[in-house]
Design a protein that fits this description.
eight-stranded mixed sheet, Archaeosine Trna-guanine Transglycosylase, Chain: A, domain 4, Carbamate kinase, about 15% strand, 14 helices, binds glutamic acid, alpha/beta
Length: about 375
């Protein structure tokens, strides 16, 4: 496989096949492909809509209510039903799924960002398939992402996915709406660093009534994800084996090349954290280990300065007080004062809990 960590966004219309009911055969296709990807050591995360549709199906509503609380109610009814289907169908292929519900607020807050990132990483490391949706019941206007296209781009950034697949009911992005314009052509490759204005315009008029997103939110998602180092493809969800073929690099649909590497993007995220809220001093051995790509362990920390929280960006200073790295800390300053100089294995005994062996995981560290 060309890609090793894939986020796939399945919208309501992909899961219902354009009807008003969730279509189990769609989930079977998804599960089959997930199993194939797993056997080739490619991890997969699904960002799945369909909660509102499943709730509506359960209540037998013919019309989709317009007001937000009722939609949130339908989502609360539908989400467990949707997950039960995923659990059952993926289980047939020996796969275990896990539900992850997020809002924009979770990803904007650094501590919650780190928590979500750690949980998703743990799920992937244990060979599980996270099924992500927006936490609709608590997601009011101010804190919600609002559509799962953009949510999937945020998730791709969160876990450093190398491929984001946005499934839709068209072959990809067209130069015009193919239903209205016979000269419309499929765009196969977007390589410009900024998505051309003509494509934004072309995407404007194609949203369908069923899901929340249309082409425009897919384009927003593509724009966001490629800036965090992820390759993005918009492709037809009913194309046979679309995911496994894309993961092998087959040229289906519309491809958006990433505009930065994911390391570059993570560096920017960490450095964009603003002024560091504190610092840790490390010994010579730890400084050397960091330069060789290791994580920062408590045993190499000699002291912690300033007051900071878990998830904050802090400076890493060497023995003579020069900043050698910056990163997101797993422990707050009070905890660090207790565990510095100790082996990671002692963390739990000292604090009564542990957030892992590392003070700063190497994935959350930028060498300066
Ligand atoms: N969270 C919504 C649902 O599960 C869908 C949002 C969207 O389709 O973009 O029904």
């Amino acid at each position: 496989m060309t890609f090793h960590r894939l986020v796939v966004k399945c919208g309501t219309s992909t899961l219902t096949g354009g009807t008003t009911r969730i279509a189990p055969p769609r989930l079977v296709e998804l599960a089959q492909q997930a199993a194939q990807l797993h056997s080739a050591a490619t991890e997969m995360i699904v960002v799945s809509s369909g909660a509102v549709a499943a709730g509506r199906e359960r209540l037998g509503l013919t019309q989709l209510p317009k007001d937000l609380p009722v939609k949130q109610m339908l989502s609360a009814i539908g989400q467990p039903r949707l997950m039960a289907l995923y659990e059952q169908i993926f289980g047939l292929y020996g796969l275990t799924i896990a539900q992850v519900l997020l809002t924009r607020a979770d990803l904007a807050d650094r501590r919650r960002y780190l928590n979500s990132r750690n949980t998703l990483t743990a799920l992937l490391e244990h060979g599980l398939i996270p099924i992500v949706n927006e936490n609709d019941t608590v997601a009011t206007e101010e804190i919600r992402v609002g559509d799962n296209d953009n949510l999937s781009a945020l998730v791709a950034n969160l876990i450093d996915a190398d491929l984001l697949v946005l499934l839709t009911d068209q072959a990809g992005l067209y130069t015009a709406d193919p239903a209205l314009d016979p000269t419309a052509q499929l765009v196969t490759d977007v390589i410009e660093p900024d998505i051309p204005a003509a494509l934004w315009q072309a995407a404007g008029g194609t949203s369908n009534g069923l899901g929340t997103g249309g082409m425009i939110t897919k384009l927003q998602a593509a724009d966001l994800a490629r800036r965090s180092g992820t390759t993005v493809v918009i492709a037809n969800g009913s194309e046979p084996n679309v995911l496994t073929r894309l993961a092998c690099g087959e040229r289906l649909g519309t491809w958006f090349r990433p505009v930065v590497t994911s390391i570059e993007s993570r560096k920017r995220y960490i450095l964009a954290g603003g002024r560091a809220s504190g610092s840790v001093s490390v010994d010579e051995g730890a400084a050397r280990a960091l330069r060789h790509g290791s994580s920062l362990l408590p045993v190499g920390v000699t002291s912690a300065e300033g007051s900071f929280e878990r998830g904050d960006t802090i400076q890493v200073l060497n023995a003579v007080g020069r900043e050698i790295a910056r990163g997101m800390t797993n422990y707050n300053s009070t905890d660090l004062a207790h565990i510095c100089g100790h082996q990671s294995i002692e963390i739990e005994t000292i604090l009564g809990y542990t957030y892992g062996d590392e003070v700063i995981h190497r994935n959350n560290l930028v060498l300066l």
